[in-house]
Fold this sequence. Notes:
With 188 residues, the protein is mostly helical. The chain is built from ten helices and no strands. It has two domains: 6-98, no CATH class; 106-186, no CATH class. The two termini are 35 Å apart.
Amino acid sequence: FVAVNKKFLFPLQLERFTSMRIKKEKDKPYMAHRNSANYSDNPLQTLQELNDETVLELFEQMLYDMNLNAEKQQPLRAKDMMIKREMVSQYLHTSKAGMNKKESTRSAQMYIQELKSGLSDANLLACLESLRVSLNNNPVSWVQNFGAEGLSCLLEILRRLQEDKSPSRDSKSEHEIIRCLKAFMNNN
Length: 188
């Protein structure tokens, strides 16, 4: 699979790349990555062979997933095409590398199914903590996949916990749901 056909790349396959991208602790200044454009396990190994229009579409998707405001996007858009190709290559390479990370492979749908399954208090708290980390660290596209259905699950669990009048009520889970809601709203 040498050439990449645009109709096969958008939106499903690109979504797979970007939904698995992991956030770095600190963004590093731009440096050419000597092998990133030729990463052999990546179907986009021929990124240099793609036309400029396709690279620009990938670049725009990258900017969108980075959740940058217009002010921060403007200088990046002003870069020349070679730098944009390298940035897209690094971004997709990082996305591919993220597939090996346990947290990043957990999809939004997996969280939704887990929340719907009626977890015990300890398991619910662990799930909510992990979900909060994912909501904070995954790209906007991942948060959008979690979307209304995930939000509905969180609100239903919060409602159920609020209705529980017993003294052993789990306030830690309530607090963690609020933190998840905050992370969701900050990234959506």
